[in-house]
Amino acid sequence: GEHSAISVRLTECTTEELQELQTILDHQAVLNAISRGTQEEKERLVSIASELMEKHSRNIYSHTLDYSFHTELYEMGRNKAVHQVIQGVRDTRFVQRENADGENDSVWLATIPQHYQLAEAILNSNSAAALAAIDEILEHGFALINNSRFRCNFTACICLICNRLNCNSFIIFSYHSCYNIKICCSSAGVI
What we know:
Blueprint: E1 4-10, H1 15-36, H2 39-57, H3 63-76, H4 80-98, H5 112-123, H6 127-143, E2 154-159, E3 164-165, E4 173-177, H7 185-188
């Protein structure tokens, strides 16, 4: 089919607005993973969640495993646009957390049991349990962000040809057909 690139910039959004966006997209990603993921992919997601739980039992948080878990989840859904926008929002949230005073990655330990519940629910095609688990994960993450208005300045420039996302693009909105021209995030600034 035809490939396209689109750039979207969200500015001055509240935490609640960003949470609503991510919840909608994560719900779709979870439903897609349940319906489109292979048995092998679902088992791999449970395996990653089991590794997270093993570390959790020793009070250890692994950002690498957490990232792998969410990447596997989004790839199972087979929707590059949903995956890339969610990843951009997640990356923005993690960057905001990096500079939190007196805080480290251990704040994410509280979400590990829900990661396992999510993986098991996806494996068992239990949509209600899967959506409940992703909601708990998201609620915890957004509770860590100050509820005041913050500078979101999230820009998603997605190219479905090169499958790249660049959150540092300064384009407000662009749409391009991508037949013979490779439009990607690094070149989007000169359009």
